[in-house]
Amino acid sequence: MRRYAPRIIGGNCFIMNKPFGSFQGRPIVAQQAGFTITRVGAHLGAEIAGIDLRQPVSDEQRDAIENALAENALLIFRKQDISSQNLIDFGGRFGELTVHPFAPKDKDASVLIKFRNDETNPPFRTDVWHSDETFRKEPPKATILVAKEVPAIGGDTMFASMSAAFDGLSDRMQQYISGLEAIHDFKPFRELFDDEGDRQNVLRWEAIYPPVTHPVVRVHPVTGRKVLFVNPQFTVGIKNMDERESKALLEILYQQAAIPEYQFRHHWEPHTLIMWDNHSTQHYAVNDYFPQRRYMERVTIKGGAVDGVERADPETVRKAIRRQTGKPKPAHGKPQAPVGART
Description:
By secondary structure, the chain is of the alpha+beta class. The chain has one domain: Clavaminate synthase-like (Double-stranded beta-helix). The chain contains six helices and 20 strands. The protein has an eight-stranded mixed beta sheet, covered by helices on one side. The protein has a three-stranded antiparallel beta sheet with strand order 17-11-19. A three-stranded antiparallel beta sheet has the order 13-12-16. The protein is globular, with a radius of gyration of 22 Å.
């Protein structure tokens, strides 16, 4: 597949194109293990074509998918009419599947989460930017979600590259937050226990999942890139920092996920499967489809310890937006103020 760029002649843009095969130093289309990988986003997102997930995934295919995930952070597999067992088998090729302690699980397979949302069962706290289950000491490394039934309008999922979000911070801010630790807690799920008799139940959950600390800036275990690793869903504060200061700093860092240049918006179609890297992304399920029905199935892959950095090295940090070079100047030029004009 070839991509084309418009050719500008005499200041005008004509439908005359020349092919180009790479963007930001990486190829747009690649062939690996018998399937095609096509990048669809600037900082994250690639579509995988030519693989049938109803069939067992070979070691070669698994390794190629893992490499593509590390490089693109979000993978999209379309037209995958798979069973729940197919989903479990596919996820299991990438590691041990975990059981979410608070999500609606399948009665026959605890690793399978079933989201059935409609006018009687609205989604619960998914419309907040987050990385999955960072209240765990070892958060998941990846999540896989497949669409069984989707609304006619709405129900998209947004993703943000938190490595691009870190790169977009100023050098001084990068240095300041590197080495800090944030406290994470299962705070949104506390709303599930609002009855007076739930107190002992909550205490038992707190014993199983006490608040944990993770580096504010983590290092991706595969790529080595630095990643901003705080989110408004589960992060409750900065360790050893005054509450007022902590809240102010976190609000600044949370806003990085809301910058459109770091985002990719996925529009669901039935039998579309997506796989995202929890090391380096956050996501937000857009809750705009009520009272339409949305039915999804999910598995989550166990992760490991979160490694951080002691300090940033601004000379080697790639800037997502501010330091792009070779960009053409705006064609409309600089407007000249009229002589003698008054405001």
